[in-house]
Design goal:
Strand order of the largest sheet of chain A: 1-2
Number of helices of chain B: 20
Order of helices and strands of chain A: HHEEHHHHHHHHHHHHHHHHHH
Largest sheet of chain A: 2 strands, antiparallel
Structural class of chain A: mainly alpha
Structural class of chain B: mainly alpha
Distance between the termini of chain B: 38 Å
Oligomer: heterodimer
Number of strands of chain B: 2
Order of helices and strands of chain B: HHEEHHHHHHHHHHHHHHHHHH
Distance between the termini of chain A: 25 Å
Shape of chain B: globular
Number of helices of chain A: 20
Helix content of chain B: over 70%
Chain lengths: 512, 492
């Protein structure tokens, strides 16, 4: 059983090695990527079976400091996160093959290599057995994704990389690490235990401070004012934005917040001490402000990025509600938002490759040429907003009920307002696509115009010097990419009918 | 044989030094230096093993019984420092061959190795001896040879840097010898263990307190505590690369050891903290050193000078641990002695590789080296991450205990300062990394990776940075044991 845990880390690393070895043969290299992703998902699935049967496999890799271990342990919350990340890695790999080739990106080997390293560190985060291990893999994840963010190698990418690493690193080192050492100083351990390890070890005055150190110190959760890195990271190729900055990296952040709340503090203890009362309003403010900023963005990826900022705080909010319903909603939202948002990013990338459009205002009428893509975008939108028949409805439901249970009617209003906001700024895109009037042809002149007005993420100008590619516009999105979009969009609907596995995992977490 | 290890620790490199002069060829002198350095490391490891099993070792030189004769006294504290010093020597010595042949003219190479071995034996002597005056003698041996080593640098400014160091170093040594003299007047003894017994009777006398003051200033000059650090940046910048790597990892560490040994063993921790308020004097200096020198490092354009200012800041961390006046704080200090030697050694050696190929250590000189000299720059990145304190490197271990010490005292602001300044370290390391990886290489196509004779030792240190970051159980155990020995007489 423990070998499965080790394999979950080792398989992506081994995949990275194969990717590097096969760099001369792109087809073999991509095949290696796909096989690795599939193998990883199979492994995580086996772990899921064991954990839902009640097993809690664990393994210690090393003991860097006396009493501080690098240990892996599978528990329901981590399994939920690992399931989502590893499944979506398969889909994203398929998508990337279409995207990276269709977009003629350079240094594709480096891209697949660091992608595999990033997934390995995500597995480390998901199965971390204590705070120290979580922190270590969290930092490795920042480092592994840095070359992906700066993939274009331009001045702009370099600046974005500085913001990215700067914010993630400084918050984690100054707040999170301080929190970890403080927890160790008072509790004498940093292991994750059901019910938490702090009860009886700290005075009530210290709990809010410690909790704040984690909520803000886990910068990947993008709670304002530490959210700037996420829009900056959009300079990366779209598959990176899709898997890492809608699923793996940002979810590693909110997952860590949830995990710390449940297994270090214990959500009952948080509720008793009232430690999260002001933090839930910090999350609520991020939810509303993120939506409002998303409104002002014409660049499609930037709009999606701010939507992510807003949606991530739903998960944080669920954790801060500190009751069983909130925690269930929080965990389910990790899953539901992942499927919804990755669909939206896939669509954005497909539009970019097929039509070279990156701004919302350029999308008029494009839906009639790319019906699958825009239909999928509509489904993704519904899931993000939380409307049936999509999975997003479930997590919003639990978060709302959890807010009522916590006696925070104001938060219910926040949730509803933000749903309306996100409906407005996301629905604009399929509406323009299907019903908008084309402002001229989609032929060469319009395309050139698109680049002049671009100024968005690096992808927008990757083609500026290659007018010969305009004939792409009518080829539609690459076939691999469309298949990936279809998979995630159908998953959004399937999760409405069958949210059971994720729900069951979360009830195991809350112990009900 | 094993009974004589304490004296062999010093005598082997000391005797090897003059033989270097007889060997006309540089390579032969180098071979002798490598042999002597490795022998010193083997002896130091053997001593550490003996001490952990049998406790304190006492060696009477010429069988003159202490406190009359000179005693070499090895406990866990100085056995630890001996391993650090000789370990760095054992890595730098093989590295020095290629580096020194490039940077020092051929005729002076045997002289270089003679001076290097003298410096090594001086540092080992200071560490191992249990006699105060003997400390002063070895201090002069190591200092004078260090001035000569620095003056061998290529740039003419190496001469003025060495001269400046000589002036400041001599002032420091004079202060120390005055302090030792005053203590001798008061007690009639030069043996440290003996003094520790005699001093409590005369604690109240003003002479003892004045002696304490002289010693404090002298040590702080030698260990380059802000604001007495002015000699250090130039000395490290203009010295030959191998010398910088050696000195940065050993000389200041031994000075910190002297301070710990005198103030905590000879005077005793209760006297230092309760009567002389050592902690309250050192705390502000350490904080200012860490913050200001990290800031200054950010604005340097010469990478060796950048690392030199970083060293002054890192010394601040060591002194900060001491100023917590707890076992955990002192554990952090002793850990950082070792860990900082590993990381700074690796960083300076990586820059030595750059110097070897490019001939400059200006920040623009590393442009594009991320692709051109991948192993060198990867070593720099790894050493840099360790300096910043990323988990699974030794830097993280030091930081962990330093912050734990601060929180134990309830000084959360000190913990935050340590964390914030580690971000400053990230900034100055990142400046170099960005130039190396994001700019194109301007030089000619023939430029290749540094030879393995340079890369091997560099990567040996990098590997140790990672190894002791992943498995710090042994180093933490030794450091804590040593801290408990030093803090004897004061609660945990």
């Amino acid at each position: 059983m423990t070998t499965l845990l080790l394999l979950a880390l080792a398989v992506p690393v081994a995949g990275a090695v194969f990717i590097a070895l096969l760099r001369r043969n792109p087809n073999a290299r991509e095949a290696a990527s796909l096989v690795t992703a599939g193998a990883l998902f199979a492994i995580v699935l086996r772990i899921y079976q064991a954990v839902s049967g009640g097993a809690r496999p664990e393994v210690t890799l090393a003991e860097p400091l006396p009493g501080i271990r690098i240990a892996l342990e599978a528990e329901p919350l981590g399994v939920l996160f690992a399931l989502i990340a590893s499944f979506l890695w398969i889909v994203t790999t398929a998508y990337s093959i279409g995207y990276m080739r269709g977009h003629h990106e350079k240094n594709q080997t480096r891209f697949y290599l660091f992608f595999a390293f990033a997934i390995a560190s995500v597995m480390g985060v998901a199965f971390a057995g204590n705070l120290f291990t979580l922190f270590a893999f969290y930092e490795v994840l920042s480092l592994a994704t840095f070359p992906l963010v700066t993939h274009a190698g331009t001045e702009k990418a370099k600046r974005a990389g500085r913001v990215y690493l700067g914010i993630l690193f400084s918050t984690s080192v100054v707040f999170q690490l301080l929190g970890i050492i403080w927890v160790y100083a008072v509790a004498g351990t940093v292991d994750f235990e059901p019910g938490g390890i702090l009860r009886g070890n700290v005075g009530a005055g210290l709990v809010p401070i410690l909790l704040a150190l984690f909520v803000f110190g886990i910068g990947k959760a993008a709670v304002m004012p530490f959210h700037r890195w996420l829009p900056a990271a959009m300079v990366a190729p779209t598959p990176v934005s899709a898997l890492l900055h809608a699923v793996a990296v940002v979810k590693a952040g909110v997952f860590a917040v949830l995990k710390v709340t449940v297994y270090i503090f214990g959500f009952e203890f948080v509720a008793e001490t009232g430690a999260s009362l002001w933090l839930m309003w910090a999350a609520a403010a991020t939810i509303i402000l993120g939506s409002l900023v998303a409104f002002t963005k014409d660049n499609l990826k930037a709009r999606l990025a701010y939507s992510t900022v807003s949606q991530l705080s739903y998960v944080v909010l669920g954790a801060m509600l500190a009751n069983a319903l909130g925690v269930v909603g929080s965990g389910m939202h990790i899953a539901m938002h992942a499927f919804g948002k990755i669909t939206l990013f896939f669509c954005a990338g497909a539009i970019m490759v097929a039509a070279h459009k990156s701004e919302v205002s350029q999308l008029n009428g494009l839906g009639r040429q790319m019906p699958v893509t825009f239909a999928a975008f509509l489904i993704g939108t519904l899931s993000i907003v939380g409307l049936p028949p999509t999975g997003g409805a479930w997590s919003k439901w639990f978060l709302g009920v959890g807010s009522v249970e916590a006696g925070q009617i104001g938060l219910v209003a926040v949730l509803m307002l933000s749903s309306l906001l996100s409906l407005a700024y996301l629905l604009e895109i399929p509406l323009r696509g299907f019903f908008g009037k084309e402002a001229g042809g989609t032929h060469a002149p319009a395309d050139g115009h698109a680049h002049a007005a671009g100024g968005g993420p690096a992808d927008a100008h990757a083609h500026a010097g290659a007018p010969g590619h305009d004939d792409h516009a009518h080829h539609g999105a690459p076939r691999w990419s469309v298949a990936a979009i279809a998979v995630t969009a159908s998953a959004c609907i399937a999760l409405f009918v069958y949210p059971e596995p994720f729900y069951r995992l979360m009830t195991m977490v809350t112990g009900q | 044989m094993s009974a004589h290890l304490p004296i062999l620790q010093v005598v082997v490199p000391l005797l090897a030094a003059p033989f270097c002069l007889f060997l006309k060829r540089g390579r032969m002198a180098w071979g002798l230096a490598v042999f002597a350095s490795w022998a010193a490391l083997a002896i130091a490891l053997a001593l550490l093993g003996q001490v952990t099993q049998e406790g304190v070792l006492s060696y009477a030189i010429g069988d003159w019984v202490p406190p009359i004769g000179i005693e070499y006294r090895v406990d866990i504290v100085n056995a630890w420092v001996l391993v650090i010093v000789s370990g760095i020597g054992a890595v730098v010595a093989p590295y020095s061959m290629a580096s020194i042949e490039r940077e020092v003219e051929a005729g002076r190479i045997p002289l270089f190795y003679a001076a290097y071995l003298l410096c090594l034996s001086g540092l080992l002597g200071i560490t191992i001896t249990g006699d105060m005056f003997n400390v002063f003698v070895f201090l002069e041996i190591s200092s004078l040879s260090a001035y000569a080593l620095i003056a061998l640098g290529q740039a003419r400014r190496a001469l003025t840097s060495a001269f400046r160091y000589l002036i400041m170093g001599s002032v420091g040594a004079t202060f120390i010898v005055i302090g030792i003299g005053l203590l001798y007047v008061m007690t009639g003894s030069l043996n440290m263990a003996d003094l520790a017994q005699l001093l409590p009777e005369v604690w109240d006398s003003r002479t003892v307190k004045v002696a304490y003051g002289f010693l404090a200033v002298g040590f702080c000059l030698k260990l380059a505590l802000f604001p007495l650090h002015l000699w250090l940046p130039n000395a490290y910048t203009y010295a030959p690369s191998a010398v910088t790597a050696f000195m940065a990892s050993t000389a200041t560490k031994v000075a910190v050891y002297m301070l710990l040994r005198f103030f905590l063993t000879v005077f005793g921790a209760p006297f230092s903290f309760d009567v002389m308020a050592l902690d309250r004097v050192l705390l502000p200096l350490a904080l200012v050193a860490i913050a200001s020198m990290s800031l200054v490092a950010i604005f340097q354009v010469n990478v060796k000078r950048l690392l030199a200012y970083s060293s002054v800041a890192q010394i601040g961390y060591m002194i900060l641990g001491l100023s917590f006046a707890t076992v955990t704080g002192l554990t952090a200090t002793l850990l950082h002695l070792f860990n900082h030697a590993l990381m700074k050694g690796a960083l300076f050696m990586a820059m030595g590789c750059v110097m070897y190929r490019i001939g400059s250590v200006h920040i623009n000189a590393v442009a594009g080296l991320g692709r051109r000299m991948p192993w060198t720059m990867a070593a720099f990145v790894a050493g840099g991450l360790s300096l910043v304190g990323v988990p699974l490197t030794v830097g993280f271990v030091s930081k962990w205990y330093l912050i734990l010490g601060a929180l134990e005292r309830g000084w959360w602001w000190a913990a935050i300062l340590v964390l914030l300044t580690s971000l400053l370290a990230l900034v100055y390391i990142w400046r170099v990394v960005e130039v190396a990886y994001f700019r194109d290489f301007p030089g000619d196509e023939a430029t290749r990776e540094a030879p393995w004779t340079l890369l091997g030792p560099t990567w040996a240190l990098v590997a140790l940075n990672l190894y002791f970051g992943i498995d710090a159980g042994r180093t933490v155990g030794i450091a804590r044991q040593a801290a408990e020995v030093l803090m004897a007489g004061i609660g945990p």
